[in-house]
Amino acid sequence: MRLPLLALAALAPFGALFAADLPALIPLPAKAEAIEGRFKLTADTAIVAPGELANEAGYLAQRLRTAAGIPAPVNATGAGIVLALDKSIPAEGYALEVTPAGVSIRGGSPAGVFYGVQTFLQALPAAVYGSDLAPKADWSAQAMKVQDAPLTPWRGLMLDSARHFQPKPFILKFIDAMAAQKLNKLHWHLVDSEGWRLEIKKYPKLTEVTKDAPAYYPEEIPTNPTFRAKYRYGYNHGGGHYTQDDIREIVAYAKARHVDIIPEIEFPGHAKIALTAYPEFSTTRKVPEVRTNISPDLIGVHPEALRFIRDLLDETMDLFPGDHIHFGGDEAPKGQWKQSKEVQAKIDELGLRSSSHPEDALQAWLFNEMAAYVAKRGKRAVGWEEIMHGDNLGRLAKGSVIMPWLSVKNGAVSANSGYGVVHTAVSPFYLDSYQVRDDREPSALYGGPFTAESIHRFNLFPGELTPEGRKNILGAQCQLWTELMPRTDDVEYQAFPRACALAELTWTAPDRRKDTGEFMARLAKHGDRLTALGLNHRRVAPPPGAGWSPVLLAAGRPMEIPVPAAVAAKLAKNPTLTATFNYKEGGAGLDIASVELLADGKVVATDKHAGFAGTHPRDNVYRLALPKGQKPEKLVLRATVKGSGGGDSTGEVALDASK
Ligand code: TNX
After folding, report:
1. What is the DSSP letter of 91?
2. Which residue among 61, 290, 455, 547 is least crowded, i.e. fewest CB within 10 A of its CB?
3. What is the pLDDT of the chain when averaged over all its residues?
4. 430 lines ligand 1 (CB under 6 A)
5. pTM of the model
């Protein structure tokens, strides 16, 4: 009998879910099963691909040559690792078959084939992602069959290169790391009050002014974390920008890895540095003086200022071939616009006076002007949710995409009104937050913690959505604001592994990722790949022995937890097994009715008392004595829960042997 994968998941304690057979795949594919045998890479292994897949074949060949040290020739015909297009498969989907005799990767498009290649790489040793030869690794892959396609089209990360600049090699590495998780949208925050990081030929002063900024300001005390947090706001920390040649190189590199780059050219706010370089385009025509994270200085709406924005967009569109361009639009305090006669006259001229928020309506008008401008070149405009505030929602250009960062509800409302929506809510998607509660973590702007688990569990389709609105949910994205990330190491650490949780959230259908505990067990193994990718990342500990999770509880049967060999060995000396039920998060907590110890399938000890594992645990330790003289081969702990047991809680069962 073949059980659906989820039913199997419910029967097995997590960790054991696929461990025996499938490699730890992240994001979890729609369907995956291990089959008998392994495929071995040898000096004769060839990659067979048609000309249209030269890029994907080249990418795979380069990985195998670099890490496994095999020649991996790319041929038009023959046997080996065969890549092919198959129009019966969804565009970003693929079918992967690994058998001892060969590998077949068919995709609905080159992107689909690329994702099939990524899954195949996850069947090989983690070193396949590295830049060094790993001759000692076992260069073989578990045989398996996978059928897969993503849940959503927007699987993104936003990187702020304005507050702190990251050099080009880092950006390339970051793109590689994204591709390995099947992430496909890099929203690149290239300009802000603190720095303009994109070369614009027509306005060279933008990057020149950025270059002049000192790395530290006298009033900052960089070594003191409290002061650091306080003073880094609103300050440019040193120069650095990408030349147009850099951008072309980065865009090509990303394209080869099926990552679209969405550049953000922000207006009318967060524009201090632009207006320092060119005060003639500001509302006040004065050089900005105030240095704060949210700058009061706004770009104006006089013809020269509009021309400035269009010029910026022209050069940006020449560089970035993707179909989206981001206009920012967040945190633009309207004080200067309220005070400006010129701006007020514009509001009247446009007939916006009757709006409940005339200046917000003017911002929507400005957004729409530029949306229409970029639409001529086939691009959709994206903005932070402020562009739909006030009474703007009906006013915004159709086809625009909104990023709700302040409230998930505004996202639902926007989607129901026909706008594309990418979830970007501060909680849990802002990565300038703590990822776990631990004093040793780097300082972060937002508290949190916003954990990988909370990202994994986020509901992409909130109840407020209409069926039409649901179709407008494009996906989700994590944000890396870098005010407090002066080094690229910091960026990597905050991004990984949380970005892997985002990848699974946006790739894998909700009914396939109900068990976040099981995901975390895979994530612990995935850590070796992140290391091979050269990332400074937070290591996730493997689950200690066993745990509980909603999927296990939903099965409505007792939980069976194998006693690890190391603990069983200790029982020879100290015959009492203690099982402590430690609640982690979610739900109400676990209500335990009784716990039994099974030796080779027979109950040999029982501890029947009511226990509770939650934030305030009660009697959550169970003691079971192994009868003298017994030397069973297999010891299993069986816990019976009361009623539904523990809602959607998760936790761990710590096992130890003591007197
Ligand atoms: C708000 S989120 C901002 C950014 C800051 C971030 C953290 C958003 C659209 N705007 O400009 O970097 O908070 O301070």
Report:
1. T
2. 290
3. 90
4. no
5. 0.82
Would you say the CB of residue 293 lies under 6 angstroms from ligand 1? yes
Instruction: With cut-offs at 50, 70 and 90, classify the pLDDT of residue 232.
Output: low
The confidence score (pLDDT) of residue 492 equals 97
- The domain made up of 154-516 has a fold known as TIM Barrel (3.20.20)
Q: Which residues pair with 581 in a beta bridge?
A: 653
What are the extents of the domains in the chain? Answer: 5-148, 154-516, 547-656
Torsion of CA 372, 375, 377, 381, to 10 degrees: 110
Q: Is 405 in the pocket of ligand 1 (CB under 6 A)?
A: yes
DSSP assigned state of 272 = H
pLDDT at 444 over 90: no
Catalytic residues: 192, 270, 331
- Cα 105 to chain centroid, rounded: 25
Cβ-Cβ contacts under 8 Å for 391 (sequence gap 6 or more): 355, 356, 357, 360, 361
- CA–centroid distance, 331 to ligand 1, in Å, is 8
The atom of ligand 1 lying closest to the CA of 483 is 12
Q: Please report the beta strands in 21-86, taking only residues with DSSP state E, as ranges in sequence order.
A: 31-40, 47-48, 74-75, 81-85
Range 5-148 has CATH code 3.30.1360.120 = no
Q: Residue whose CA is closest, atom 2 of ligand 1?
A: 405
Bridge pairing between strands 31-40 and 74-75: unpaired
* Residue 175, phi then psi, degrees to nearest 5: -65, -40
DSSP element (H, E) containing 615: none
Q: Is the CB of 154 under 6 A from ligand 1?
A: no
